[in-house]
Amino acid sequence: MDIPSQLIVSAERLALTGSTSAIHHHFRSGRLVRLRRGYYLKTSEWVDATPSERFEWSAAAVGLAFDQPVFCRETAAVVLGVPTLRPPTFVDLATSSERITGRRAATFVVHGNNALANQARSVGNHPMRYVLQRETDAVVAGDVACTGPVQTALDVMCTSLFSSALVVAEGIARMLWEQGSLGQDARLSDHPGMALALDGVATDAAKRRAIRIANLAHTKSESAGESFSRAAIELLGLEQPVQQHTIVDSGQFVARTDFWWPEQRVAGEFDGKQKYLDEGLRGDLSAEEVVYREKLREDRIRGLGFTLARWNWADLEQPGRLRQKLLRAGLRPRPGR
Question: How many CA atoms lie less than 13 Å away from 334 in the CB half-sphere?
Answer without folding.
Answer: 10
